[in-house]
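Section 5: illustrative case.
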């Protein structure tokens, strides 16, 4: 089933949707199911990318927070950072339970690389629960052997390709109208606009927090936060050069991703690692193109139409297809959003998404030290700029292009399949091994 706008854009905490938000959600579900069970010990086993980069991505603390019943949307980010990474015991609903965390970097269950297994043993030594989850990107979690837990929804426009999306959008007048009609099948229509405004507001607040914060990001790299200093530079007199807008866009994207890297509150768009691109392009549209609140809502809907399609047909997970699935998808979504706000036809909007995605194909995920910092933060600044360029280019054409959005998504999927695991959020290749250890 196509992902909802409010599944793609969810308020959560940094630094990673797949490695922080997803594991917290899975742990919370396990904890909830064990509420009245006589649990004596709990073992969590992380596989693949979660085992390799989980520490840098805060997976360990996220698991503990989830077991304590915390939800990524409401948890205090500072409280998560204050948790012990792997405590000897965790308190499950008033009961002190022995706790182990195993990292298995080789082998593991077949399927998505972000597998995590929870094994709970009772007072009498019997296994009370043995559940395997996959964190498939964007905070989405699936459980092996358990069907999609979302209630089935009869979507009026259940498009299965960009071509079908285009046909629906042509019939309704816009890409955003297709998503709006689908969302109306999920919630009362009058709730849609306020909910979209709340998402846009949360994105904007993440920019503002990022612009105000200074200091050094967590982790061994000692990366200094740059947004506040860049803001002072750009706001100084005489800085309005020919690329002024591009500089602001880069700053806004970096502000969000520094906030994400610090474990702060951001909105997945569609993931944490790529969370800066859409907020930056939204603010660009409002600051430099005269877009208003209504336009912001339509932009989110258009972006969501593209994001849902990419998630359905390929992946938005860096651990599955590399950074093309995170920053590439975010840029495609933002390009579609901007083209929609600037009055593009449905063909131009989807062409904008295609151009942005096409020029991220093959991009690997190689975070240094397993942290969502380098190259991730700057990558959002560059991705946001590319999204704007793609939208502008598409708006100069008639929507026809040698490469269709369907072809670009399929190329991304195949490229991801061919990509060596070293380049899929394992920190075993690329920049992660090319930069001397600090
Ligand atoms: S390199 Fe890209 S995919 Fe990998 S963690 Fe950073 S933003 Fe996410």
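Designed sequence:
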């Amino acid at each position: 089933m196509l992902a909802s706008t409010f599944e793609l854009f969810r308020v959560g905490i940094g630094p990673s949707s797949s490695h922080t938000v997803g594991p917290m959600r899975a742990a919370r579900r396990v904890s909830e199911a064990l509420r009245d069970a006589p649990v004596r010990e709990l073992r969590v086993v992380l596989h693949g990318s979660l085992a390799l980069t989980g520490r840098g991505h805060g997976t360990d603390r996220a698991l503990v927070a989830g077991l304590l019943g915390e939800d990524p949307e409401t948890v205090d980010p500072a409280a998560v950072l204050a948790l012990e990474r792997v405590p000897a015991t965790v308190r499950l609903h008033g009961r002190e339970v022995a706790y182990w965390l195993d990292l298995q970097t080789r082998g593991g269950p077949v399927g998505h690389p972000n597998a995590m297994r929870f094994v709970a043993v009772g007072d009498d030594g019997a296994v009370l629960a043995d559940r395997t989850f996959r964190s498939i990107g964007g905070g989405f979690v699936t459980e092996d052997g358990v069907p999609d837990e979302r209630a089935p929804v009869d979507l009026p426009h259940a498009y299965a390709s960009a071509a079908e999306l285009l046909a629906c959008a042509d019939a309704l007048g816009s890409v955003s109208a297709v998503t709006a009609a689908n969302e109306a099948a999920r919630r009362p229509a009058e709730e849609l606009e306020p909910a979209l405004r709340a998402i846009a507001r949360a994105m904007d607040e993440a920019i503002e927090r990022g612009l105000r914060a200074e200091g050094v990001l967590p982790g061994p790299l000692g990366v200094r936060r740059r947004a506040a200093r860049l803001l002072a530079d750009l706001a100084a007199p005489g800085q309005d050069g020919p690329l002024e807008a591009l500089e602001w866009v880069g700053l806004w994207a970096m502000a969000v991703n520094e906030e994400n890297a610090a474990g702060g509150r951001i909105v997945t768009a569609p993931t944490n690692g790529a969370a800066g691109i859409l907020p930056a392009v939204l603010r660009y549209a409002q600051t430099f193109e005269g877009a208003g609140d209504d336009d912001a809502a339509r932009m989110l809907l258009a972006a969501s139409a593209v994001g849902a399609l990419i998630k359905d047909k390929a992946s938005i997970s860096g651990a599955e297809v590399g950074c093309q699935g995170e920053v590439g998808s975010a840029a495609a979504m933002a390009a579609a959003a901007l083209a929609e706000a600037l009055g593009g036809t449905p063909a131009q909007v989807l062409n904008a998404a295609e151009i942005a995605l096409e020029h991220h194909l093959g991009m690997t995920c190689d975070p240094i030290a397993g942290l969502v910092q380098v190259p991730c933060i700057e990558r959002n600044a560059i991705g946001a700029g590319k999204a704007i360029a793609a939208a502008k280019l598409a708006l100069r054409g008639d929507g026809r292009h040698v490469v269709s959005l369907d072809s670009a998504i399929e190329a991304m999927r195949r490229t991801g399949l061919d990509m060596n695991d070293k380049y899929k959020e394992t920190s075993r290749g690329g920049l992660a091994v090319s930069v001397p250890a600090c």
